[in-house]
């Protein structure tokens, strides 16, 4: 029932803003932060100022990144990412805001001009001094060859994955673009985020206050569920294609949802 209602709203909408968190990528094999087997259950957080100040924190940070890199490098988009790409193909998706750093929206064929990466991109490393960029594969290879916290080859500055760490300032123009998108959409579709990391988690509230419908799709409860017009507690790879009206072979095999005909 709720899926059918959401699908109807998506059919009616002309300016959808999608918003994704780590939950959309767990079915691609990338663990999220807060689930029981998530990253936080295994690693300590290295804050940005610790990274900048202490060599041993940089080494620990890069150790964690090296450990997670093969999984991120080899991950492929899943049915959830592809459902957003399909909404864009139909001209409905006006912006894709993501907290993710895995590049899987780009890999799913979504036009990169639609994608706003709030927390940066973990497939490249950047120099904190001169901004020079290095593919992550190359940075990790240098670690494997013995550099424990690689430095910039151009200026010897600190090399760090091009992501926003805890305690690091978010690029204001990215946030401003997301805010504008949230204010002007008619439907805000938040998927796979625990909606507790600010300022990202404020965006669905901005959209709702500006008059948009708000749909939240997440396996577990979020602090703003009460504000939503529709909350769907389900697995994304199954529920999002059904919401978006995208037929998949899995659903054709009988997922329990209404068959989607287009
Ligand atoms: N893939 C990535 O790029 C990645 C992975 C881990 C963490 N992060 C970073 O960590 C921060 C953590 O915040 P967050 O809110 O995005 O993630 P989170 O870990 O706080 O929340 C993910 C949410 O997704 C739900 N979930 C997980 N798998 C699901 C599935 N298959 N179907 C339905 N729901 C599912 C969980 O219940 C959880 O509430 C992000 O801001 C991001 O920058 C990114
Ligand atoms: Zn440099």
Bound molecules: nicotinamide-adenine-dinucleotide, zinc ion
The CATH topology name of the largest domain reads: Rossmann fold
Number of domains: 2
Oligomer: single chain
CATH homologous superfamily label of the largest domain: TPP-binding domain
How would you characterize the largest beta sheet? 6 strands, parallel
> In CATH terms, what is the architecture of the largest domain?
3-Layer(aba) Sandwich
Mean pLDDT: 91
* Sheet with most strands: strand arrangement: 3-2-1-7-8-9
Tally of contiguous helical segments: 10
CATH class of the largest domain: Alpha Beta
Succession of helices and strands: HEHHHEHEEEHEHEHEEHH
Which range best describes the helical content: under 10%, 10-25%, 25-40%, 40-55%, 55-70% or over 70%? 25-40%
Q: Which of globular, elongated, flat, extended, rod-shaped describes the shape?
A: elongated
**Residue share in β-strands:** 15-25%
Number of strands: 9
Can you walk through the features of this model?
- The chain has 262 residues and is of the alpha/beta class.
- The protein has 2 domains: 1-29 and 77-119 and 170-254, TPP-binding domain (Rossmann fold), CATH 3.40.50; 31-74 and 121-163, SIR2/SIRT2 'Small Domain'.
- 36% of the residues lie in helices and 16% in strands.
- It contains 10 helices and 9 strands.
- It has a 6-stranded parallel beta sheet with strand order 3-2-1-7-8-9, sandwiched between helices. Strands 5-4-6 form a 3-stranded antiparallel beta sheet.
- Helix 1 (2-12) crosses helix 9 and helix 3 packs across helix 6.
- The protein is elongated.
- The two termini are 18 Å apart.
């Amino acid at each position: 029932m709720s899926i059918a209602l959401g699908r109807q709203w998506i059919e009616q909408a002309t300016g959808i803003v999608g918003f994704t968190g780590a939950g959309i990528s767990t079915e691609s094999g990338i663990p999220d932060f807060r689930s029981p087997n998530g990253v936080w259950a295994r690693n300590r957080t290295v804050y940005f100022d610790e990274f900048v100040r202490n060599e041993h924190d940089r080494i620990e940070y890069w150790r964690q990144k090296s450990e997670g890199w093969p999984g991120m490098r080899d991950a492929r988009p899943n049915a959830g990412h592809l459902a957003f790409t399909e909404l864009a193909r139909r001209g409905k998706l006006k912006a894709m805001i993501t907290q993710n750093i895995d590049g899987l929206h780009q890999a799913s064929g979504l036009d990169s001009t639609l994608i706003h990466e709030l927390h940066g991109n973990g497939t490249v490393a950047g120099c904190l001094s001169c901004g020079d960029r290095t593919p992550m594969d190359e940075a990790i290879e240098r670690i494997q060859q013995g550099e424990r916290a690689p430095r910039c080859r151009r200026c010897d500055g600190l090399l760090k994955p091009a992501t926003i760490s805890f305690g690091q300032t978010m690029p204001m123009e990215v946030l401003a673009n997301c805010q504008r998108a949230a204010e002007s959409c008619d439907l805000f579709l938040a998927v796979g985020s625990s909606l507790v990391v600010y300022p990202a988690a404020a965006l669905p509230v901005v959209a709702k206050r500006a008059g948009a419908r708000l749909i939240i799709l997440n396996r577990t409860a979020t602090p703003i569920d009460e504000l939503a017009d529709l909350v769907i507690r389900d697995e994304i790879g199954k529920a999002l294609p059904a919401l978006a009206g995208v037929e998949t072979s899995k659903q054709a095999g009988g997922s329990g949802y209404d068959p989607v005909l287009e």
